[in-house]
Each structure stands twice: as C-alpha cells, then as structure tokens.
Amino acid sequence: MGTYDQIFSTFGLESWCESGEQSGGGPVSMADLLAQNAGTDIPAPSIWKLPFPSMDELHESCAAFPQSRALTKSIEDGFLSIKDGLSFVLDPLTQPLSWFLEGSLWLFETTPWWIMIPALLVLVMLVSRSGKLVAFVGASLLLLAFIDYYTFSVQTLAVIFVCAFLCVMIGVPIGIAMSRSDRLQRIVIPILDMLQTLPPFVYLIPLIFLFSVTEPKLYGIAIILYAIVPVIRLTDLGIRLVDKDVIEAANAYGMTDRQKLFKVEIPLALPNIMAGVNQTIMMSLAMVVIASLVSAPGLGVLVLRGIRNLELGVGLVSGLGIVLLAVILDRTTKLALARINTSQD
Amino acid sequence: MAPRTERETKIAIHNLYKVFGPDPDAALNAVQEGGLSKPELLEHHNHVLGLEDINVDVKAGEITVIMGLSGSGKSTLIRHVNRLIDPTAGEIIFEGRNILECSDEELRKIRREQMSMVFQKFALLPHKTVAENAALALEVRGFARSEYIPEAEKWLDRVGLHGYGDSYPHQLSGGMQQRVGIARALTSNADVMLMDEAYSALDPLIRTDMQDLLLELQQELQKTILFITHDLDEALKLADHLVILKDGRVIQQDEPQTILLEPSDPYIVDFVSDINRARVLRVRTVMEKTTATDGMSIAGEIDQEENLETVIAMAEGDTRKTYLVTDGKQKVGVLRMDMLVKSLVPTEAADDGARAR
Lengths: 345, 357
Fold this sequence. Notes:
The complex is a heterodimer. By secondary structure, chain A is mainly α. Chain A has helices at residues 5-10, 14-22, 30-38, 55-61, 68-110, 113-128, 131-146, 150-180, 182-197, 200-210, 216-240, 244-252, 257-290, 299-308, 312-342. In chain A, helix 5 (68-110) packs across helix 8, helix 5 crosses helix 11 (216-240) and helix 6 (113-128) packs antiparallel against helix 7. By secondary structure, chain B is an alpha/beta fold. Chain B has 16 helices and 13 strands. In chain B, strands 6-7-8-3-9-10 form a 6-stranded mixed beta sheet, with helices on both faces. A 4-stranded antiparallel beta sheet of chain B has the order 2-1-4-5. Chain B has a 3-stranded mixed beta sheet with strand order 11-12-13. In chain B, helix 7 (145-158) packs across helix 8. Chain A binds chain B through residues 243, 245-246, 248-249, 251-256, 259, 263-264, 267-268, 270, 343-345, and chain B through 82, 84, 107-113, 115-117, 119-127, 136-137, 139-141, 168, 170, 184, 188, 194.
C-alpha cells in the first residue's frame, strides 16, 4: 500500500491495478531488496514526507503501474532487438577502422626505436620548423623510453594518429557541407553538442553491445565520435568567416564552385581548420585513456593498472607520460598553425 | 575623340529594377503599377527599393562614372552588370545579348574573359603572392603557371609594382594593394573594367596618383570602364559620361561639363556648389564659338581641352585679356577672361531655379 492509493481508487482503477498484482512484479530494484531485508514499515503519512508521485511511488500504490527500471529495461530490450541488424550493417562498414588501427599499431611497435624516434623528430621538424621543439620532443621520447614506457607511448601515438587522421578526413567534408547549408547546420549542431557533452563513458556502453571488446574498432569509434566535434565546428566556422569580398572577387573572375572551394575557401579557412585539428588531437588523447577500459592499448592501460592494483607510482608516471605526449602534440600543431597564420595576415 | 553618339554601345542597361525583400515581384508590382516611392514601399511592404528604372548606356572606350552617396544603389548597380546580383526586372545588353539570359557556363565565360572587376576593399587572396593574385583570371581560365606569371609581371610593371611579384599582399600598403587589384583586372585582358569604389579606401594623395594612373592607362588601352564613386571631384576628373544616382534613381546623366553648368536638380546643385569649378570646366565649354577675331587684342593661344585653372594661371589673374582657342590645329573660338570669371559662379538648377534649401 502506498501514498497514492487514493488517486487510483478515485478513478476506479482498482481492478486494473490488481490485474498487475496477479501477473507478478517487474524487475526488483536493489533499494526494494534492501528495504525488504531491513523490514522497515511504511511511516505514518506526513505532509513533510510526501513523496513525489514518481513511477516507483505510483507502483507502490498500483502494481500495474510500471516501475522506472521497466523504462530503462525497455530501452535495453529495444536496443538488444535491433542490435543484430545494426551490427550486420555497421560491422563491415567499420571494419577498415580495425585494419587501420591494427596496421598502425603494428608499424609503430615493430619499427625499432632507433628508427622510430628519429623519424618522429623529422616529422616534428617538418611540421613546426622549430629546433627548440625538436630538442624537447627528443628529450621527452628518450626519457619515456629510458623508464621503459616507450612501447606504451608509441601505442598511444599510433592510435591517436589513426583516429585524428580519420577525424579530419570525415570532419572537414562535414564542416564544408554545413557551411554551405544553414539547414544542415541547424541539424548537425545539436548532435555535435550532444557528442561533446555526453560523458565519455556513455559512448562505450552501446559500443560494447555492438562490437566485441577485443576489436580495435570499438575504441576507435569511441575516440572518433568524441574527438571529431571541434574539427567539424571549426571547419564550418572557418569557411563561413571567409571574407565575403574575396568570395565576390572569386565570383567576379568566373571561378567555378570547385575552384572557389579549393583555391579560396579552404586556404582561407585553414587557420581555423588547423585550430580544430589541434583540439581534435587533444580530445582523442583524453579519450584514448578512457578507452583503455575497452582494451585500447597504450599509456591508458598503465593508468588503469595503477587504479586496479593500487600501484600509485605506475598510475602517476603514466599519467605524466600522457601529459608529455599532450604537450608534444599540442606544441607541434600550434606551431604549424602559427606558420599558416603569419603567411596570411 | 569621336562624339558620344557615334560610339558603339558596349553595355546597355534598360528599365532595371531591383527590390530587396522576401517577395520582390509583388513589391515591384506595387512600384510599377501603384507608383509607390522608396520610403512608401519600405513602410507598406517592408521591401527596399534598391534600383528604380535605371537606363544607362555604357559606350565602348569611355569611362562612365556612376556617382551617388552611400545608399544610392551604385554598388548594387555595378554588380548587376556582371550579375553578381540578379535584377528584379529589366535587361542588361552586353555586346548585343542579354546577360540575364546567359547560362551559368556562358556567364562564367563572360566574367573570365570579357569583364574584370576592381573592388573597394581590394579583395586580394591573402595566401597568394602578388603575381599569383594578378594572374587570377588567367589561372581560373586554366593557363599554365609558366604562361600566366610573365603576363602578370608585365602588368604589375605597368602599374608601378616592378619587383613586387613575389611579395604577399599584406606586405604592401593600401595604395599598392589596389595597384595589384588593377593589375589583376588588366591581366585578365577583358574589354570591360568594373571599378567599384576602387579608390574610396585610399588616402587623398594616393587617390590622385591612382586616378592619374587610370587616365594614363585608359589613353593607351581604351577599355570600357564603369567606375563607381561617391566623390564628385573624382567623378568629374575621370568621367567621359557621368551618371548621378540618388535613392536608386538616375537623376541626371550627361557629360560632366554639362552637369556642372546645367544641373537639372537641386540635389545636384548642392553637390556641385562645393566643387572647384575652375579645375573641372574646360575652355571649350565657356568659350565663344566664333572665328571672327578682328579687332580683338589676343593675349595668346590656348587649347580647348585645357581647364580654366590653367588659363587663369596663364593670364596671371588679369580679367581683361582675351585668348584664342584652338583644337590643336585651327582656331575654334575665343575666350574672354571676364566670361571665364562669370562661369565660375555656381549655376542654379536649370528647371526651377530654386535651391533645395
């Protein structure tokens, strides 16, 4: 018997409620079980303790009324029922992602350190043109290698390179399409807002249902979904911000839409697009740690070990390793961005 | 120069209307049938009448200047010529065909090969070098770099930017950037140059330089130029044919000398009252057309294209002198200095003779 018995009897719904009692209750929540064990009685009604007429509270009064767990349960059942169809479509579509990640991991792990480290330094030099940064990157990588975190670090880098690259490949065209159509922009922006604010763990839940945890694409998708937002947003913004006068000049000299896009809009939006790429890389680095819960390799695995086994030192040092990688990636892309900016002012 | 009527009409604008707003056709109807004025249309239909019944002939090889204050619709008008803006009604005939009926492909071809444009804010591509910017039209047309860069360099030399080809636009001053803009228009080798307030963003001294450059180039190249400005001095200096625009309507169009001497509207009277008339008026407009010079004491000979300022300087301010006017070969008239002085007093509007205030 609950607080709201009166309501159901007023509407003459007792028989409906009783039919629910016969068919047996729905799922039993942990709170119910605890309450049963403790054997607490329903307290005397008081206006100060009037419970909100929530689903569970109404269920107390009327057994036929669904509990809140029934709502979430129905979502689970719904998802499970479409799961097979969804995996059937998504599995082959996302399979290349697994291949990319496996290939990249294989490349980074099998290349000997005395080739990998110089190669990374050359890459940093090409992108940033800064000797100071190359020295810093060299010192950081040697330090990580010296304390035996080299393999984990390059695994993290391998995952980030693949995911950030795919984010750019997918995100830039979406951003361009958004800048062309106000309607598409209105549709996409709420989705981006949702992707950005959804707690990262929540991404993992449906993905675990869909794919096997041992597949690299599981964490690949999680990282891409989380990190793709800034590159889409800033591509859209960058192209919308291109000087209208310059676009007019391009039109006046008879450029085709294609010429306008590649010769005017993308080059002029490049500073913004690069800022988006920088953010995307930073966010994939954040996600790669969380994704270690679903078998993403790299420094995140060590962080997880630190938590699980209470190995404080391992957790802290690998955390600092991630910070080092973040600083390296951020400075490198920022310097590249600065170079583009100075050539355009 | 051949008289204006004998020149070929390059661009003819007929009955052009432009209405801005969500339903321009209905609003246009209200203007054409209901005779609403610009403020009435804005009040009752919430549409802006940008251009109203514009008829202008742009003659080949001339500089046609469209002058008006901001909001008069001049920039809108010039964008109709290469259809950066589509009109609500009317037609634009370019070399015998209606631009409004061109397909996208044909329009692109016209923009690439036959019309070039110079912009108020230069509108150069910041990520390309000066030479690449100047070569834009050729690059768009698909020429190879080895062909278009020398061509661009040639025109950059011509506008006084020798050796700047490898710089970037942001390294140049405003005046130099606009020279790049002009070089870009010239490199496209189009007959028609549309200049949208091309010099309005420049400071006065540089502007004078650029006006001289344009006149000098024009002497040599004989392009058809449509020039937009809000500056009457500039308009009078450059124009072969001057169109004065107010609130989207043409209120007078003629040779600049005629507009100055016979303004048809109080608005124009106000406009021209602040002008240094001596610099604009030419000897031929104020001289007495006669070949009988007997009994006159002639102080000297002057060309009919000289402006009055030059004559005053020559006479050292003496109003009693008389000059013989020639067209370079033979005498065409006489100029008495007292007539000259009279012509410097601003004329009132020809139709009603009343000042606007």
